[in-house]
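[step 3/7] fold_predict: job queued, chain A
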Amino acid sequence: MKSFGLTDKGRVRQDNQDCFIIEKCDSRDCLVLALCDGMGGAKAGGLASQLANKAFVAHIYGRLTTRVKRHVDYPSVLRDACREANGVAYEYSQFDEAYSGMGTTIVGGVVKTNGSGYIINVGDSRAYLISRRYHAISQITTDHSLVEELVEYGAITKEEARVHPKKNIITRAIGTEPEVEPDYFEFTLQTSDVLLMCSDGLSNTITDEELLDYTTQYADPEQLCRALMSKALSLGAKDNVTVVAVYR
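[step 4/7] structure written:
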């Protein structure tokens, strides 16, 4: 597998509240990944995303590298890691009024060299499974957002959701409440498939069809990430933009 990630504050925001981690775990022959998009003011949002990101990855890595070799219960490991990330961010928000209400999205998990993938999400940062062989794209995660609920109810279309004035309102986040429930997904990367994770700064700027077209053009994750970032910035990138790609 090959992987790469890139983040940028965009063309409008003064600070970058996004962050990501790609950690290789040789003992389990896998990658541990996480991407967060903070909220709650520049200082608070950035802190929330960094705290949650590090806590999430550290918990998973610790469970995978324990000296006692045993079967890994990935749903349990990822949900526990999410609870750890939420607890760290929430407790920190109680220390100072300046951090009150801070929170972050998260999407992340584990991808094994054999193609098995396990992922959770909270908020509207996304994970996509893209087949370069069959020219197909599917969103693995489901957004926890107001517009996604409206789409599910049939009140608006997917196309209308992209330009809806309340498209940035999320219904679940890390760090805003003492407890949070992530969604869990499993997937398989076939040979030449791509796992693409991104913040809404990318998905609100570039369509799924464009993500697919770009992915099929580039056989290298770094080239893909740089091309997508360049495209998002050229379109004005009103929000922070983060993209992570894993090629099998």
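[step 5/7] annotate
Residues 42-64 form the longest helix (23 residues).
The mean pLDDT is 93.
exit 0
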